[in-house]
């Protein structure tokens, strides 16, 4: 109740009151730097307040997943996760003792304690938990579980800490960005586990919108030191927030209209002779001094990027097998990047997604450690310019100010974006760094602020092919939405490794899936559309396989065959096609990329249609409808042109 917290002159929490009911699942959201992680630490009891009281019910177990958990580097993953079973083992041991005592001499007190222990053991996961540690680590993608944690990556350590918490089954779980360093499938599993199986209360800090929508029943927003609670799911919060902002805008417009009339009246120099005139002058002065309803609200992130022109060839991977050292990771696969493509990359941890990005950077001549495929070639077009955002934000210089790091040692004082030239300070203000903040050292920034600095450096580079490795980690929801809008409007190409399913559905024109198979190398396959399209494709394949096993018949027209043409769902592992006699080399090259380009155009059509069918668009973003309609028509026309050209080339090839 009435919590207060300051960091130097900054007010993090101001008279904040918060309560959590038994079994309630709450999402805590807010812009980067507002204090979400600080509040989570206070609720978990690992950080103190400057005022107010924190009351926790006696006997309540609270567990906290930090963004950077501290684990014993000498302990194995197995040993650390087994720490989560301490309460369960103690309850089982006490149950055995009580049962033995009852066998000797039953009493009402012993029988009551036995009943309480029965209930507690069921709460902690039941009697059979012999394999829970191994199963949970396997589910979260942690291998070699007897290896010390000190030799593991930061992502592995986070997954080990998460496994310990899930095994523990506390009364209250406080989770700070739990989906960071999880692949998309594991994030989906965790989402369902917390929503359906976990019975305790949750306070969840996350940027994952699908996760929020599925898990929480209340959203709490931290803004300018204060909390505002919204009952319902994340989508309900968005509707209520839009109504609130619209009301604030109407209130401010009315205030400005009244203020304008009063200023005009005051300009005529009325004398305060009567009580009514005195009151009106006082009212005008009060209006001048009044704080607008939307005053202090955070500025909107505006991500802008410049891109140089692309050539005909952008990027090709030909017969590539990815490897780490002498250990092969993938089967051979091909990848052709078409103009305007935004390719999402998904798959379990450790199958080669980041290795692929590093191999592309090595082919581009980037400095640093060389990463080359075990077999095959990475071919870049002569006009292709690449910028890379890595998970660790390794390109940042902690000792420099934001301004100096983004400008660079020989950087120009301005940035040209299309037909606009912005001075560096104005450019950085678009990333929510005001003049004072721009002087701050990069090393002192929060994770979200560091991510925005890295984006600012990347997007001014003039690259036309952007490589992102988990770009959504640490970003707040407004910055995430701004990054999506930038990519949708950007003329270049992008390859994005991410676990964020909403981000993939919003931005990806195609998906490159790394699929791990037992006892085999990872299979790499390209699909049109975003995450939901990929999941639907997998479900369709599973249904067909089940039908084949039971002797059933398949549907005459499976999902996804709207066009009278084959789908480009399995091009990634096809060997290079031999040149046909009827086509020139250039035409064959064009044909090889046609199906992916058609898939991308059709995915854009579907995406636009889904947005245009959303009632919330007209209620909250009506100004975007004309541009979205034009984008829809352009995508339809492009798909039609591409299909006609594909049919023309196929006919010529067979002639």
Written account of the structure:
With 655 residues, this protein is of the alpha/beta class. The protein has 21 helices and 21 strands. A six-stranded mixed beta sheet has the order 4-5-6-3-7-8, sandwiched between helices. Strands 15-18-19-13-20-21 form a six-stranded mixed beta sheet, sandwiched between helices. It is globular. It starts with a strand and ends with a helix.
List keywords for this structure.
alpha/beta; Rossmann fold; 655 residues; 21 strands; six-stranded mixed sheet
Extract low-pLDDT stretches: 553-580
Q: How much is the radius of gyration in Å?
A: 29 Å
Helical fraction equals 40-55%
Assigned CATH architecture of the domain at 3-237: 3-Layer(aba) Sandwich
Give the overall silhouette: globular
CATH superfamily placement of the domain at 3-237 = P-loop containing nucleotide triphosphate hydrolases
How many strand elements? 21
CATH topology of the domain at 3-237: Rossmann fold
Largest sheet: 6 strands, mixed
The structural class is alpha/beta
CATH level 1 name of the domain at 3-237: Alpha Beta
For the terminal residues, how far apart are their CA atoms?
79 Å
Beta-strand proportion:
15-25%
Give the overall average pLDDT: 84
Tally of separate helices: 21
Strand line-up in the sheet with most strands: 4-5-6-3-7-8
Mind sketching the topology for me?
Elements: E1 3-7, E2 10-16, E3 25-29, H1 36-44, E4 62-65, H2 77-82, H3 86-104, H4 108-123, H5 132-139, H6 154-168, E5 172-176, H7 184-197, E6 201-205, H8 209-215, E7 218-223, E8 226-231, H9 234-267, H10 275-289, E9 315-321, E10 323-324, E11 327-328, E12 333-337, E13 342-346, H11 353-363, E14 375-380, E15 386-389, H12 402-407, E16 414-417, E17 420-423, H13 424-429, H14 447-459, E18 465-469, H15 477-489, E19 493-497, H16 501-507, E20 510-515, E21 523-528, H17 531-549, H18 585-592, H19 594-612, H20 615-620, H21 625-654
Parallel strand pairs: 3-6, 3-7, 4-5, 5-6, 13-19, 13-20, 15-18, 18-19
Antiparallel strand pairs: 1-2, 7-8, 9-12, 9-14, 10-11, 16-17, 20-21
